[in-house]
Write a structure and sequence with these properties.
By secondary structure, this protein is mainly α. The chain has 19 helices and no strands. It starts with 37 loop residues before the first helix and ends with a helix.
Length: 466
């Protein structure tokens, strides 16, 4: 792949059509040990950062099921009992002390989508600031602000829908800078032949955060009440922020405990990768076909990802009719598979490049194809299985798991085509990829059985009048 900036050396030594195997050009510096290394410490700390990030993002999806008065959404839903009640009786009674709100399906869609209205605003500015000033403080304070806002969620819900929507949009503003900031940091920290490994470890935290927060939110809702969901994860976010500020540095040069050998390994491997140009080449970026290819892939992948992320707990409750406790656990199963796939695919991608001399372009394309087509097939199939609970969970799990291949495909391709501006490039692609999160829940909510039933009733009544 050719860099969109003319004065940048092609990333990973890529030339022309990228048909030459990656490692047949110049001798590489000997790899620094992995154990206790500063770069892998950064990967694990950022892993927990994205763990917290997604815990703060998705906890509302489960809590909302318990926040809403079930009669509000079920009273006009003539098809909600198509699937039989099958949840096993639980001896411990469901705690009912949490306040209930009479929000219809459309209102719930706006609440779930409001996060992304803030999230889309700070993508490109976040990438720009991180590329100029470093990503450590930007990412840290982005998650810290989100954690603080999360603590105020119960209060905002009491003030009304408008206050809750505004608060979620503010949380989105805080989280919007995180991925561009992390990409900007990895442009200074990740040796080219370790990018897939390091970034897959880092971003896999998002999937594990979903895996843990969904069932844990369900348990908290069941045995305590939904308000404690936001208090718990808000406090966890503050604890992570303290560790991040104390232990992380923007670059290897400023890290206090990195060994001279590892520092030299990272800097020498990136020596011909980064640009000395201070100004941002906006026009060449926007004219770059590889960048727009990433935009299309990112948008398409996120349409499925965000729809499931925000609406899977509701599907489990209103269609498959699992109770709140089972709901959280079963909603998390698909993301456990995705987390494992991200880790393993990152290792596989770098091994294919380093040991088997596959080109970076080939690896990115193949992993992206698997991560896009595989999920689509199983997600469509899930729509035709009716009330087969086991098959529904299995198909959704396979779909989400295969999506993990994209973490070593288009997701990190920004670092391949222009590592110096990777944070800005991710900000651009993630801006477009946020649109599905904004409109997906609203569209999906508008297609619920109760909406379909009401529309049919209106059409029939109009026909009788005519």
């Amino acid at each position: 792949m050719k860099s969109p900036v003319s004065d940048l050396a092609p990333s990973d030594g890529e030339e022309g059509s990228d048909r030459t195997p990656l490692l047949q050009r110049a001798p590489r510096a000997e790899t620094a040990p992995v154990c206790c290394s500063a770069r892998y410490n950064l990967a694990f700390l950022s892993f927990f950062g994205f763990f917290v990030l997604y815990s703060l993002r998705v906890n509302l999806s489960v809590a909302l099921v318990d926040m809403v008065d079930s009669n509000t959404t079920a009273k006009d839903n003539r098809t909600s009992y198509e699937c039989a009640e099958h949840s096993a009786p639980i001896k411990v009674l469901h705690n009912q002390t949490g306040k209930k709100y009479r929000w219809d399906a459309e209102t719930q869609g706006w609440i779930l989508g409001s996060f992304f209205y803030g999230y889309i605003i700070t993508q490109i500015p976040g990438g720009y600031v991180a590329s100029r000033s470093g990503g450590k403080l930007l990412l840290g304070f982005g998650i810290f602000a989100t954690a603080i806002f999360t603590l105020f969620t119960p209060l905002a819900a009491d003030f009304g829908v408008g206050a809750l929507v505004a608060l979620r949009a503010l949380e989105g503003l805080g989280e919007g800078v995180t991925y561009p900031a992390m990409h900007a940091m990895w442009s200074s920290w990740a040796p080219p032949l370790e990018r897939s490994k390091l970034l897959s470890i880092s971003y896999a935290g998002a999937q594990l955060g979903t895996v843990v927060s969904l069932p844990l939110s369900g348990v908290i809702c069941y045995y305590m009440n939904w308000t404690y969901v936001f208090y718990f994860f808000g406090i966890v976010g503050i604890i992570w922020f303290i560790l991040w500020i104390c232990l992380v540095s923007d670059t290897p040069e400023t890290h206090k405990t990195i060994t001279p050998y590892e520092k030299e390994y990272i800097l020498s491997s990136l020596k011909n990768q980064l640009s000395s140009q201070k100004s941002v080449p906006w026009i060449p970026m926007l004219k770059s076909l590889p960048l727009w290819a990433i935009v299309v892939a990112h948008f398409s992948y996120n349409w499925t990802f965000y729809t499931l992320l925000t609406l899977l707990p509701t599907y489990m409750k209103e269609v498959l009719r699992f109770n709140i406790q089972e709901n959280g656990f079963l909603s998390a199963v698909p993301y456990l598979g995705c987390w494992l796939c991200m880790i393993l695919s990152g290792q596989a991608a770098d091994n294919l490049r380093a040991r088997w001399n596959f080109s970076t372009l080939w690896v990115r394309r193949v992993f992206s194809v698997i991560g896009m087509i595989g999920p689509a097939i199983f997600l469509v199939a899930a729509g035709f299985i009716g009330c087969d609970y086991s098959l529904a969970v299995a198909f959704l799990t396979i779909s989400t798991t295969l999506g993990g291949f994209c973490s070593s495909g288009f997701s990190i391709n920004h670092l391949d085509i222009a590592p110096s501006y990777a944070g800005i490039l991710l900000g651009i692609t993630n801006t477009f990829a946020t649109i599905p999160g904004m409109i997906g829940p609203i569209i999906a909510r508008s297609l619920t059985p109760e909406k379909t039933f009401k529309k049919g009733e209106e059409q029939r009544s109009q026909g009788h009048r005519q």
